[in-house]
Design a protein that fits this description.
By secondary structure, the chain is α/β, with parallel strands linked by helices. The chain has two domains: 176 residues, Flavin prenyltransferase-like (Rossmann fold), CATH 3.40.50.1950; 214 residues, 3-Layer(aba) Sandwich (Rossmann fold), CATH 3.40.50.10300. Helices cover 34% and strands 24% of the residues. The chain has 13 helices and 21 strands. The strands form six sheets. An eight-stranded mixed sheet has the order 12-11-8-13-16-17-19-20, sandwiched between helices. Strands 2-1-3-4-5 form a five-stranded parallel sheet, with helices on both faces. Strand 9 and strand 10 form a beta hairpin. Helix 3 packs across helix 5, helix 4 crosses helix 7 and helix 9 crosses helix 13. The longest helix is centred in the last third of the chain and has 19 residues. The two termini are 32 Å apart. It binds cytidine-5'-triphosphate (CTP). The site of cytidine-5'-triphosphate has 16 residues, from helix 11 and strand 16.
């Protein structure tokens, strides 16, 4: 049900009878988990009160450039940057005209002009106004500027005339919003390769050097990509659970060297590569082919030698257009260390989880991450289930790819 969880939506409301339906639209968006900021034109307040809308959205409504009594400035630029989507519903003929021609005399139009992401408009007006050459021209201009038009429906209008001009129903608008987010982060046709789980480095036939990784984070990422239509290959170390999703091909490995060989094959053709495995950095220098006996020795020394750095090896063969993402598990100077790894391993983004955070890291169902991109962006997320974290990570990867394309 929470199909819009974490999405930032600016809901622009203009002065038309259909403005009352915006309250229903707002409620539906909030129910689906979106965070919504309402921006109203002064005329819209004649049709619906800001109190209703701020109560439903849980945020003060923005309408003026600044609050008269405090002088507090409302930044349309910040709002435009914050929004993942702007929906203007209802959009009157006058607002459509202003948007099409850049007439920025109110907060709604300035926010539109500052919006970095997608914009939708749901016009509502009398049938003759809707059919007028001026409105048609403005809608055509907006469409060619990339604005998505949610055409008005046929029906009885406020004037009691019957024709085309009714705002699309809130349910239909919500459906368009959901479809937009699905489309935006659709991964169909994409190939994703992920390293998952721990590696085991054999000492003798019954013992190994390993770590506590459960593979949960890696497989949550694999599931998330598969659910968005990607073809996924997971190169996985020994774990107790493997997903059975037919879109996830699992290549089982045990040691870091095996993982390295298989990853070099699988990542070669991938559009997105994610290094979620907890690779053992060292392995015993020698493997003893029989069980090492206790008798006769009071001490035992295990000499370890370095394992291949899989992320680095794959990144050295990085293809054009490929996005590579690593993880960093740190106990101290977390951000600085993560940034160093990002550089050293030639990654596009690194997912930092710190063992200082309760509920984050190994053997838990939750995680708390900070996403650090090569372009310097740093996004901190609260504690969430590993599947939700996977969703945030993939959203961010898709954004990076969009910005780099
Ligand atoms: N990684 C890898 N191969 C290795 C070691 C790490 O592919 N031999 C990947 C991990 O999957 C992760 C990233 O590199 O995505 C960082 O792993 P981490 O263990 O935090 O870093 P290390 O390079 O091993 O550095 P250190 O252990 O010294 O912090």
């Amino acid at each position: 049900m929470e199909s819009l969880k974490g999405k930032h939506i600016v809901l622009g409301i203009t002065g038309g009878i259909a403005a009352y339906k915006s309250a229903i639209l707002l409620r539906l968006l909030i129910k689906r988990g979106a965070e919504v900021q309402v921006v109203m034109t002064p005329a819209a307040k004649e049709f619906i009160t800001p109190v209703t809308l701020s109560a439903l959205s849980g945020k003060p409504v923005v309408s003026e450039f600044f609050t008269a009594n405090t002088g507090e400035w409302h930044s349309h630029v910040d709002l435009g940057l914050w929004a993942d989507l702007m929906v203007v519903a209802p959009a009157t003929a006058s607002t459509l005209g202003k948007m099409a021609n850049g007439i920025a005399d109110n907060m709604l139009v300035t926010t539109y002009l500052s919006a970095k992401e997608h914009v939708m408009v749901a016009p509502a007006m009398d049938l003759d106004m809707y059919a007028s050459p001026s409105t048609r021209r403005n809608l055509a201009t907006l469409a060619s500027d990339g604005v998505e038009i949610i055409e008005a429906a046929e029906g009885e209008l406020a004037s009691h005339l019957v024709g085309k001009g009714r705002m699309a129903e809130p349910e239909e608008i919500v459906e368009r919003v959901e479809r937009f987010f699905l489309r935006r982060n659709d991964m169909s046709g994409m190939k994703v390769a992920i390293t998952v789980g721990p590696t085991y480095e054999k000492i003798d036939p019954v013992r190994f050097v390993g770590n506590y990784s459960s593979g949960k984070m890696g497989f949550a990422l694999a599931e998330e990509c598969a659910s968005r239509g990607a073809e996924v290959t997971a190169v996985a170390g020994p774990v107790s659970y493997y997903p059975s999703n037919p879109s996830i091909k699992i290549v089982k490995v045990e040691s870091a060297r095996e993982m390295n060989d298989e990853a070099l094959k699988a990542f070669g053709s991938a559009d997105v590569g994610i290094f979620a495995a907890a690779v053992a950095d060292y392995r015993p220098e020698e493997y003893c082919d029989h069980k090492i006996k206790r008798e006769g020795s009071e001490e035992m020394t295990l000499r370890l030698v370095k394992n291949p750095d899989i992320a680095l090896n794959v990144a050295n063969n990085k293809k054009n257009g490929q996005t590579l993402v690593g993880f960093a598990l740190e106990t101290n100077d977390a951000v600085v260390n993560a940034e160093k790894k990002l550089e050293k391993k030639n990654l596009d983004m690194i997912v930092l989880n710190s063992l200082e955070d309760k509920g984050a890291g190994f053997r838990t169902d939750t995680n708390k991450v900070t996403l650090i991109s090569r372009n310097g962006d740093e996004k901190r997320f609260p504690l969430k289930s590993k599947r939700e974290v996977a969703c945030d990570i993939i959203d961010e990867i898709m954004e990076l790819r969009k910005n780099n394309s």
